[in-house]
Every structure is written in structure tokens, then in C-alpha cells.
Amino acid sequence: MCYSKDSLQTVLNVSVLEGEQVTVEDTGGREPFILANESLLMRGLVLRSWSNQISIRFRSDQQHNSGFLLLHYQAFVLSCAFPKEPAGGEVTVTHLHAGGEAYFRCFTGYKLQGPKMLACRNATTPYWSGKEPRCVASCGGMMKNATYGRIVSPGFPGNYSNNLTCHWVLEAPEDHRLHIHFEKVALAEDDDRLLIKNGNNIDSPPLYDSYEVEYLPNEGVLSTGRYLFIEFTTDGTMTSTGAAIRYEGSDSTYSVGAVVEFSCDPGYTLEQGSVVIECVDAQNPQWNETEPACRAVCSGEITDSAGVVLSPNWPEAYDKGQDCIWGIHVEEDKRIMLDIQVLNVGKNDLLTFYDGDDLTANILGQYSGTRPHFKLYTSMADVTIQFQSDPATNIYGYNNGFVVHFFEVPRNDTCSELPEITNGWKSTSHPDLIHGTVITYQCYPGYELVGSEILMCQWDLTWSGDVPRCQEVLTCQDPGNVEYSHKVITGNRFAVGSTVQFFCNKGYILSGSSLLTCYNRDSATPKWNERLPKCAPEKYEPCRNPGAASTSVQSSEKAFYQAGEMLTFSCHSGYELQGGATIYCIPGHPSQWNSTPPACRASSTQYVNERRLDVVNVDYSMEGTNIALAVLIPTAIVLVVVLGIYVYFAKLQGKTIRMPTSLPPYDNMTEESAFDNPIYESGVSTDVMSMQDVDSQNT
């Protein structure tokens, strides 16, 4: 798939069988990038490509399977990634789409190294026109018209390098003097040195020398003229954080007795100086105290109706191992809106908002890492903010921390009224919409809900989501799958008028309508015109028992065998099987065996034994015949003589001789059916077969 925009895909449903492969790749780059495969796909998964090209590969060795994969895709405008913000500076972006511009600037004490502006270029994968710049602390420089500024050592707030020699010259406007305030000085305990001189060259007299003093002067140092010379040197051994100093030019026209009062911007607290200073000493006019510093501190109690809570040391990085707690309190009939404008803390650091005046209150939110601008609302007039930084690590660079603006807003014990929706209605669990109230939205028949069905009034008296809407349903629900079948869909997927036709797999018969059509009902959701059919196994007539010769044996003996069954034959001892041992019942109307039963033939050893037996039987037959003749002939002669004597005497007495006129009855004779015995039949058949075999061998 290829789009003019980037693509977002959602896996709506997935049922991939074992052995099937699914791969989703972003193919718009130099090399394909795998977004997901069958082991990662699950219902509800959202995939987003980095380019305007996506490839979906599906592979299956299954001939008939019931697996399925349903994807929903949507194209979005391609955009550049958000540019990296330089340490010690910031970036502002017009927009991230093609043609958008990113502007970079550095904070006081740092200089931009690289382009001030980058443009988002249009491409398969949009990109910025150049590499993001860096904000570096210069090793020396000339600051003319120095009215207010900051100087930091190279690498600050990280460690400086070895073997540095940096010189800065500050030049204030005419009739101004320069005042130096020390924010931080941390030098290695060796030959690293910070030197400030009252003039514009290295030979000017010193005002501050880190070699000579053990503690930083809280009042800072003040020049007598418009110039200051600053020198920072390091050796080749150990390093440390270095120095951060603030300078300010002041008009020397303040007369003796002039009083100046200082205040800090919201979120900062006055430190290291006096709120009020006075110009004293008529002979050598000077301020009686140093100007104070404004610093974002850890913890505090705030009762203002609006203000700012900053991470410690903002905009510099906070320290590791901190546990800060701020309490904000407004009037009792109000509540507080928290506007979190910057949140950029470590992944192991934690910023927590409590809906109350202590740490036992309900948690409004708990965050770590980086998040875009968002808002929170309290349910009462107090909120507690807790920040905990990981004692094991630290995060360096400007704009690393958080900025939370807060405002007093009217208090309301109920959530706002939610509107009705077109083609639907709502039901409310409580009439006053107090905290915990649930509103349920539903749609009229023929419409479906787009959005969340249930909205809840939360602790901060906001609803848990946006109001949904009712959208007309123009599609039928997925009719599902029929076991032992496959389906063919025509038209837009399940839209009104589309059809789904089912085809049963081989060996199965369809029961019901094979064609389903989605039709629209005027006042209800579209539905299918028929119920799902079924695929039932096809029924076949059985095969009859094929019988078996007397010399063979069946593996099972029954009158009928179902389609698909097999029957195996084996032979009695002394016989060999001729043909395949197994036959199969082939489905059909009627079902038939795939071949005739195999025959059993006598083996070579059995044949010799039977031949000998036949010869012996013949000899025994001849001998029996001779004996029978020897007995029969004399017996016949005796009978003839006796009969003659009987006839003779009968004639002498005048009697007639009668012969029987009918044969005696055969009622006592065994019926033919009585001899219908397999033993006799087998014996006769065997003898006959054996004789035939002998005759055939003789011939």
C-alpha cells in the first residue's frame, strides 16, 4: 500500500493459525523496517509507519483453514520528528508538517553553534533541513554594552575540560559600573582558578581571587569603572562543575541615600542578598548590600490566587536526591486549575499532585519522563505538589525540570451538564451530577454509538471523556464462519446489498441457504436475510462383507462396513497371500470395495506334503477294493444258492412269489440341508481342489 500521507493501522481482529506468517513492514525507507509480525499481532494493536508505504505479507501452507486477520488503516499527514532541544537553549516550532520551521536560541551565557532555523522537508520520510544546533558556553569573549547577563564556564552545568585558559572582558555603558553576583563556583582542589580584575586587562588589580578566599562573598564584587576582566584557568588533572556568575550594569547617577527594592518573578525566591539596598558613603558611593539573587527553590507554601511552581534551580537542572513539597492554598469557596506547561524529568524521578493539603489526599496524577502540555483540576481549595529526584542519577542541561502554573477558579461541586445526542438518549445515575455520577449514552435502532458509552464525573469535576455520537448503521454484523466451509464476499464488506456465499469442504453437504444478503430495515439495524447454514458430513451406503476363502481370515467379521473403513486379510499357516492384504470401502452410492479380496495359495512346503498324502490315499484305496471283492463274491454266491432253494420249495407248495410294489419311505433319511455344514463342504472342496491341483501338476 502506498499513500501520500503516513499511515496508521489498527488490528481489529486476528486469529492466525500455527504455521501461518504475517509481517507488516514500512517499505518507504532505504531498507524495510518490520513494524509487527504474527508473534506481536493482537486485537487493538496500533501500528504507525514512518513513511507513506506499508507492505503486508501473509503466508499459509494450510489448504483449508479458519484463521483470519482484519486490519483497519487510515492515512495521516507525514510529519518531521520534534527537533531535539539544545542543552542551554530552547526550540520553538511553527508545525511539524512539510514546510514547518524550527527556531533555536540559547540562554544567557551560551552561544548558538549551528543554524538558527531548520525547515521540515517533504519526502517519503520527512526530515529537517539540517542538524540541530548546540548551545555552548564560550571560553572567553568580549561583552560590550554589558547591562545584564550571565557567564558560565565551558561544559556547565557539567564538568569543564582540562588545560583551559578563558578570558572575558565586560564593558558597561558610559557612567555605569558592573556588579558581579556569584551563582555557583565549584573548582577542583588543585591549580584551577577563577580571577576577577577591576579593569579591562590582565594587569588590572584583582577584585576576587579563588586562591585567596575560602568562601564566596555574598555581596558579590563591584567595579569602580565600566570594565571588568575575568580569567578562568584549569590544569591537566581533576575537573569539576566550574562557575556561573551573573553581571549587571548600574547607573552611577544614584545619589547617596537612594534606596532600591528588589522582587522576583513568579516561581522564584530571593536569596543571597537583601530585598532593600541603599547607596551610602558620600566620599566613595557604594551600595550597602549586594543585589539579591532569585532562585527556584525546593518546597514552599503558597497562598496566592495565581502563580508558578518551578523545579529547583530552574531553568538549570535540579539536583539529584531531592524531595520537595509545595502546598498551594486558595479561598475555601474556590478550586485550583493546574496548567503543566513543561514536564521533562528523569524516568526515575517522580512528580505527584495530591487533591488536598497533605500527602494522604487522593492523587490527581503522578508522572515521570517527558509529557506534552496538559491540565489538572482539583476538587477543593488545596493542592500538594511533591517532586522526588533519583539520588543515583542527575539530569543536566537547561529546561530540564518542570513548570506548573496555577490559577484560582470558581468552585463547583458538580460536573457540567452534558448535552443530549441526536438519534439517541442518555440516562443519569444521579440528578445532581456530583462526583461519581455516571451518564450512559445509547442510540436508537439503526444507529451505533461512536465514542465512549459511559462517562463518569471525576475527582476534579471533569468528565472522563468526550460526548459520543450516534452514527447510522449501514452495514450488517460479520455473520461469522461456518465450520468445514469457506465463504466468498461480494460488494463492500458487509454493507447493505452485499452478499456472503458459503461453500462446504469436500465430504460435507450444505444444510440451509448458501447465499446471505445484507438488507436495510427502515427502523432497525441492517441484518442478513437468512440464518447461517451448516456443513454436515455426507452420508454414504455401506459396503457388504466381501467374504473370504476357507484358507484366509478377516481382521473383523461383520455384515456391513462404513465408507472409508478398511478390511485386512491374512492366511492360515502353510498358505501365502496373493495380492494386497488390505482393501478399502470407497464412498459412493453405493459404496464399493477398491479391489477384490486377496487369495491364499499353498506354499511350496505344503504342496509337497499334500502330494504325498494323495499318493498314500490312492494305495489305501486299491487295497480296500481287493478286500471288498474277496468278501463280496462268496457272499453273492451264497445268496444266489439260498434264493434258488427258496424258489424251489415254494413251487412245490404252490405259492406265488410277490415282489414289493413300492419302495420303503425315506422319512428317516437325512435332509440335504442337514449336510449344509461348512466342515463337510470345506473338506470336499479341499479334496477336490487338491486333486485338481495334482492333476494339473501331472498334466
How would you summarize this macromolecular structure in one to three sentences?
The protein has 2 helices and 55 strands.
Question: What this model shows, in words?
Answer:
The chain has 699 residues and is mainly β. Helix content is 10%, strand content 39%. The protein contains 2 helices and 55 strands. It is elongated and about 210 Å long. The C terminus is likely disordered.
Structural class: mainly beta
Could you give me the name of the CATH homologous superfamily of the largest domain?
Spermadhesin, CUB domain
> Uncertain regions: pLDDT < 50 for 5+ in a row?
659-699
Total helix count?
Answer: 2
Largest sheet: 5 strands, mixed
- Count of domain modules: 8
CATH class group of the largest domain: Mainly Beta
Q: In what order do the strands lie side by side in the largest sheet?
A: 13-15-20-17-18
CATH topology of the largest domain: Jelly Rolls
- Distance between the ends: 84 Å
By CATH, the architecture of the largest domain is named: Sandwich
Keywords: Disulfide bond, Membrane, Repeat, Sushi, Transmembrane, Transmembrane helix
Pfam families: CUB, Sushi
InterPro entries: CUB_dom (IPR000859), SEZ6_CSMD_C4BPB_Regulators (IPR051277), Sperma_CUB_dom_sf (IPR035914), Sushi/SCR/CCP_sf (IPR035976), Sushi_SCR_CCP_dom (IPR000436)
Disulfide bonds: 139-166, 443-470
